[in-house]
Amino acid sequence: MQMANSILNEFKGHNEAWMCVDSILVNAQSPQTKFFGLQILDEAVNTRWNVLGKENKLGIRNVLVQLVLNFPEQDRAGQLFLLTKLNGTLISIVKQEWNTTWTNFIPDICTSAKESENKCENALNILRLLSEEVFDFSKGQVLSKEVTILKTAMTEQFSMIY
Question: Of 84, 99, 104, 123, whose CB neighbour count within 10 A is largest?
Answer without folding.
Answer: 123
